[in-house]
Amino acid sequence: MNDYKKLIWALPLVSALAGCTDFIDNTDYTVDKPENIAQYEYLNSYGTLKSYLDANRHKSDVAINPGFLLGTGVNADDYLKKTDVYLLTNSNFDQVTTGNAMKYSSIVNDKGEMDFGKVRDFVSAATEAGLEVYGHTLCWHEQQTVKWLNSLIKDKELEVDPNEKVEKEDYVMDYSTVSSYNFWASDEVKPNITINEGCFELVNAAATDNWKIQYHVADGLPIEKGKSYRLKVMARGTGEGTMEGKVGDWGGGSNVRVSFGTEWEEQVIDFTSATDGGFVLLQSGQFVGTIQIKYVKITHLETPAISIPVPMWEPDFATVEDKDNAIMGWGNNSTRKIVNDILELTNPSAANPWDAQAGKDFDKPLEVGTKYFLKVKIKGSVAGSISAGLQNPDGYKGCGDFSAIPLTTDWEEVVVSTTCTGENALRFLFSYGAYVGTIYIQELSFYYEKSANSIPLTPEEKAEVLTNEMERWVKGMMEATKGSVKAWDVVNEPLSGGGGWPYPMQSAATASDDTSNRFYWQDYLGDNYVRVPIKFARKYFAENGGNPADLKLFINDYNLESDWDDNGKAKSLVEWITRWESDGETVIDGIGTQMHVSYYMNPETQASKEEHIVKMFEILAASGKLIRITELDMGICDAEGQKILTKDVTFEQHKAMADFYKFIVEKYFEIIPVDQQYGICAWAQTDSPEGSGWRPGEPIGLWDQNFNRKPAYGGFCDGLAGK
């Protein structure tokens, strides 16, 4: 490892002198080493990182588990080149993790095809070099192949008999709705056309060529060229006859023939449109007598569609934090509270209905002309009724009233609807001032319906589909690694950063930033989703050559050392693990704490950070689980809390970071019991380049970008050595 530890300051000088042509007598000439080189030379005395474990593993005064593994994170492509990263990794570490190559989106493409080629190459190269591989990660919401996963849970097409299509009207000319004929007819014919008894009526006194008596009976048709339609004409005559004609425009069209008798009968003619738009033109010069037409319709057939609800407001009363002010409302000393997960609207005295109201303001106006539905599971303390409606808050203008909502003293499901009739309808309101008593609402859904030829999968169907995909993915990974990867971040970053006890799962619904490239498995599989990849990991590890006793599965998360919530996330994770294991089948072997930390030049801030690192180790130790620091790297912040970039870090600041590394490593060995010490992973070998996707321009490595050791390296070694 001498290639990686020396700071060869003299080489530039030697090269410069070799280029001089004049002889210079420098027998008594000396050059002092630049201070910025000399002050780092002490790092050359250190051995490789893992040598400090080898020397101390069996000493009674140093608490290191004989099975403890010192790990690092690498880019798989860099490692497979078998140059600097490969040599550095093999010389200093026992275990290696690839940052991205084993993640879902690196292996599964948009068509769902899986390519484990790089995984096989990486695992083979690392194990041949004598390293253990730590798998990262089987289940995460980041770096997922979102297009493929969403395709698995897209709406399912309705299975419909093609012979059972439904008919949709495109155009209707109902002559009972007009008082005069307003379409085109030839000048000779038009005087003979009237609207009589709600019908088009044409009288022809003498036979002539058919084309000489021609007229439109419909115009402005919304037809499209190439599509199939039906022409429907309700007609009769004073005798039997036919009307010849076309559906189209003056440039062309589809020929049609409409027969009629002396009784009203609807004639149906199928045609394929030859034009975009047009009219219905008929000719009847050979018929002598009177022709009447009640209506003309254009229709088409399509696969049956169903109406599916689109929720706009479905409150979960169990999760409302302010139980005494559960929803928006006002008036007449009324209240709106959550009691035992049920919304209670109480009105103490009789008043006008609008004197006590409760409801919801929407972010966007409801659409004029759209029908909205209200479905409630509801009862009252006494029988009666309340009303509900839509409103424009500007001037309190009504925009549609629902039917009265009846109340009994028993739970009833009631569905009412109204059509939005006014602009800027931003508000839904219950009005209950005339009802004296308490209204109980267990469930509430405000929605509209859309027509579709497909329907969403049910939550149960989505869970089943994604469980199968998780099984396919985990099985593929275990087949590719053949039992040689014995430890995994089985689930990565499951918890949010707050919002109750214990902290809830991360979710698309609560994410504060763009979720378009994320897929939250927990949104579909539920809070106990971690049981799914654990089950499949154990099953397929064993089926592919692994010894079940060797497999260690970790739940990995970040900010477990956080001081702003007094380690709330660490406490929450331990609680969730207890819950996940409560089924008697799920076994979680360890907890991974990422520890992407920073050293703070503000002494008070730094003291708080160190205090809560100690607290974190105490919380994790008490869990009884294996504990691994999974992604340890370190930046530095000035007294105001602003990041200091690598190019601006002083030697003294480097030394402060080294001391912090030593502190973290020492506290790990001091607090985590020996039999729970699984390992520590130095996530970043070298400082992050400017423009990097991870902590860009920060001094996060144990080596600089030229693989020279930094003071952080010495601090890490001192922590491992216990000195």
Major sheet summary line? 8 strands, parallel, barrel
Q: What is the total tally of β strands? A: 33
Specify the CATH class of the domain at 164-302: Mainly Beta
What is the straight-line distance between the termini?
A: 22 Å
What structural class should be given to the helix and strand makeup?
A: alpha+beta
Percent in strands: 25-35%
How do the helices and strands line up, and which of them pair or pack?
Blueprint: H1 2-5, H2 11-18, H3 35-38, H4 51-56, E1 69-74, H5 76-80, H6 84-92, E2 95-98, H7 104-107, H8 117-128, E3 132-136, H9 146-152, E4 156-157, E5 166-174, E6 193-196, E7 199-204, E8 214-219, E9 228-237, E10 241-249, E11 252-260, E12 265-272, E13 279-283, E14 289-302, E15 306-313, E16 328-330, E17 335-339, E18 342-347, E19 357-366, E20 371-380, E21 384-392, E22 397-401, E23 405-407, E24 412-419, E25 425-431, E26 437-452, E27 454-455, H10 459-481, E28 487-492, H11 522-525, H12 531-543, E29 552-557, H13 568-580, E30 590-593, E31 596-600, H14 603-622, E32 626-637, H15 651-671, E33 677-682, H16 711-721
Parallel strand pairs: 1-2, 1-33, 2-3, 3-28, 28-29, 29-30, 30-32, 31-32, 32-33
Antiparallel strand pairs: 4-27, 5-14, 6-7, 7-14, 8-13, 9-12, 9-14, 10-11, 10-13, 15-26, 16-19, 17-18, 18-26, 19-25, 20-24, 20-26, 21-22, 21-23, 21-25
Jot down its keywords.
23% helix, disordered N terminus, eight-stranded parallel barrel, single chain, six-stranded antiparallel sheet, Jelly Rolls, alpha+beta, 723 residues, elongated
What does this structure look like?
Helix 10 packs parallel to helix 12. This protein is an alpha+beta fold. The protein has an 8-stranded parallel barrel with strand order 1-2-3-28-29-30-32-33, surrounded by 4 helices. Strands 5, 6, 7, 9, 12 and 14 form a 6-stranded antiparallel β-sheet that branches. Among the domains are: 139 residues, Jelly Rolls (Sandwich), CATH 2.60.120; 115 residues, Jelly Rolls (Sandwich). Helices cover 23% and strands 32% of the residues. Strand 21 and strand 22 form a beta hairpin. It is elongated, with a radius of gyration of 39 Å.
